[in-house]
Request: fold
Amino acid sequence: MTIANLEKLLAAGKDSAMLRFGLGSAYMKAGDHGTAAAHLQRAVTLEPAYSAAWKLLGQALTQLGQFERALEAYDRGIAAAESRGDKQAAKEMTVFARRLRKRQEG
Reply:
């Protein structure tokens, strides 16, 4: 689905974590990290256990240079993933967070 189609669904009142994740993902692919982060933040507000949204939010915030917020997103995403037994997502976010912390130290 295109961004325009997703935005139409949102405008029609079909707000959901999945729709916000779709919008966030589409905006990330389009290079609009700020809009992506806003939609992804809404996704995790609607569904705090949505580990994929936390991971993409961390990536969007990293692209925006908001490293502390990105680390917070990864940490919350790891907790969400672990609570749902999603070991792969937790492992990926752990790697992203470790790389980001190293980058900040160096």
User: Anything to note?
Assistant: Helices lie at 3-11, 17-29, 33-46, 51-63, 67-84, 87-105.
